[in-house]
Amino acid sequence: MKPKVFLEFVEIKSLIASVLPFVLGSLYAIYNYHQVHLGYLGLFFIASSLFHMATNANDNYQDFLHAPRDDNNQEFLEETNVVGVNQISIGQARTITFGLAGISLILGLWLVTRTGLPLLWMGLYSYAVGYFYAGGPKPISTGPFGEFFSGFTMGFMIFWISVYLNTYDVAPITWIATGQVLVASGLAIFAIANIMLANNICDMDEDIALGRHTILYYLGKPVMLQVFAWSYVAGYLCLIAAVALRVLPPLSLLTLISAIPVYRNTKQFLRKQVKRETFILSIKNATIICLSFAVFMGLGLLIG
Question: Band of the pLDDT at 72, cuts 50, 70, 90?
Answer without folding.
Answer: low
